[in-house]
Every structure is written in C-alpha cells, then in structure tokens.
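Posting here for the record, re: NAP.
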Amino acid sequence: MRILLTGASGAIGTRLVSQLVDRGHDVIGTATSPGSAERVEALGVDTVVLDLLDRGAVRTTVLEASPDAIVHEATALADVSFARNLDTPFAETNRLRTEGTDALLAAAGESGVSRFVAQSFAGMRYERAGGPVKSEDDPLDPAPREGMREVVAALNHLERAVTAAGGIVLRYGGFYGADNDGLVAPVRKRQFPIVGDGGGVFSFVHLDDAAAATVLALEHDGPAIYNVVDDEPAPVREWLPVLARALGAKPPRRLPVWLARLFGGDVAVMLGTEARGASNDKAKRELGWRLRHPSWRKGFVEAYAGPFPTPARS
Ligand SMILES: NC(=O)c1ccc[n+]([C@@H]2O[C@H](COP(=O)([O-])OP(=O)(O)OC[C@H]3O[C@@H](n4cnc5c(N)ncnc54)[C@H](OP(=O)(O)O)[C@@H]3O)[C@@H](O)[C@H]2O)c1
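Prediction output follows.
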C-alpha cells in the first residue's frame, strides 16, 4: 500500500515508518521542518514538509501523494509541560486533532483514499463509574473535569469524524519505550505523586507494540475503534513505584487528596484516584495483535534499564 503518514518524525511515527517498510508498504512521511524531514528520510522513506493546520497545503499534499491510506499520528506534545490545566499545553494538539483531521479527511475523500487510521487516547476517556477496566463499548466520561474538557472534546471530534468516514480510531495507552517518554522527567524529579489511595487506573503500551497494532489496523476494514493498550491496566499505587525503580529514581511521594488538589488541581486528582483503564481484547481478537511487551511491569525495566533504545525494526 502507498501510505501517507503524518507525524512520521514523532515518537510513534518513527517506529511506524520502520514497521511499515518492513511490511512492504511504500511510505511518505510528513514533518514540519526540513530538519525533521531529514530524520525521517534517514529511515529510508520519502518525506514532505507539511503543516496540518494549513488546509490548502493538506489538500495539495494528499492529492499529489495520491495514497491508498492515510495514518494520522501528528501531535504537538514534545517539550510541553503538563500544568494543572491540560487544555493549555494541548491547545495545538487539539487543533491537529480537529482541524487537522478534518482537512485530511476532506482531502482523502477528494483523492479517493480508501483507508484512514488515526491516533486517539484511551486514558482519562472512560466513565469514572463501574469496573476499573473498560472496553470500547463502555460509555465515555460524560462530565470531564475542567482543565481537560477541550482535550476530550478534540478526541471525541476526531473519533466521530474518522469513524463517520469509515476509518479506524486507535485509542492508545500511555506510550513508553523512548527517551522522551512524558513520564520520565517528572518521575525522576519526584513530581508525580501517588494521590490518596492511588486508585486511578492507567493503561500503557510500548511504542513498538503500538506501531505493530497500527500496521495491522491498516489491513482491516473500518469503521472501528480499538483500545491499543497492554494486558495489565493498573492503579497508580502499583505502577508508579515500579517505574520509579526502573528509572533509578527515589520512590514517589504520597499526597493526600486535599493537598494534591491544591497543587495539582482537579485533573491530577481525578487521574490519580478515579481514572479507568482499558481492555485490549477487541484489538487482539479482531486485528490478531500479539504484544511483545504484554505488561509495563517487565516493559518499564526493559525500556529504562540500559541505554535508551533507538526506534526498533520489528
Ligand atoms: N498516547 C500517548 O501516551 C502519547 C501520544 C502522543 C504523544 N505522546 C508523548 O508526547 C511526547 C512527544 O511526542 P512526539 O515525539 O510524538 O512529539 P510531537 O511533537 O508530538 O511529534 C509528533 C509528530 O507530529 C508532527 N507535528 C507537530 N505539529 C504538526 C503540524 N502542525 N503539522 C503536521 N505535523 C505536525 C511532528 O513533526 P515535527 O517533528 O516536524 O515537529 C511529529 O512528527 C512523547 O513523550 C510521546 O510519547 C504520548
């Protein structure tokens, strides 16, 4: 297949380029600057410089590339710091997920692109009621906390638009397996505490496994939504000490809910105490996905024990 991959220079994008090439696909990766385009070209594929927020440029790029499939993995989360309000650091990513997705889908329709796969997120999405682990059929959180409403609205928009167009949405877990993983710096600096009983459930996925599921999704008919997460959703009180140990950091601090709310706000308290995890049953069953890193428990140790890995070729 000829595949246009947005965000090819990013954390998931670089892994995906390698796995798509290994699978025999013809990849055109997008990047926002000649510098990051060079990094993608070094992986052996063609690149195009594209700002997804420039609708005209998106149209031109898609029509000229004339791909069979589009994979949308662009986010703008590198170097952002996560404050009490997630909506502010996610503002550009929210636009990539709304305006960027809409522009890509419009161009895909015009160009006759037959497959569309897009990045979404499983964490903090599901209703904070009932059991700790949710499937794709379970209700989404009907009342997201203030400070994350725009993030959630952008993800909901992307999911509706992509599935309405017959595409596939991948609700990834929290990525790990690279040196710029979002949790590495805060956990090393003991800035990520266990809040209250630490009962908020997180789902993780190793970047190599996330890329593998994405390759499989491209070969599957849509519309569909899949949780792309590992086998072991777990509460913060379990995974955070393991991650800290794997990183050689001191054990995480513990904060009572009232203090965490004061310093971190409602979103931090919700994530630490109420968040629900996600089940990967559907992705395994329908995509035939097999994980090389079924649990963060071993995965964190493997990812962080030695020198950081370079993007793997599966
Ligand atoms: N599920 C998750 O846990 C999850 C999801 C996403 C990201 N993250 C984390 O966030 C951190 C940063 O991720 P990342 O390395 O993927 O960085 P990133 O800056 O989010 O890169 C993503 C990709 O999107 C591209 N991009 C950014 N703005 C764009 C625009 N306006 N138009 C088109 N493309 C655009 C980037 O291109 P350039 O390189 O050219 O700027 C890059 O290829 C990592 O720790 C990652 O693991 C986690």
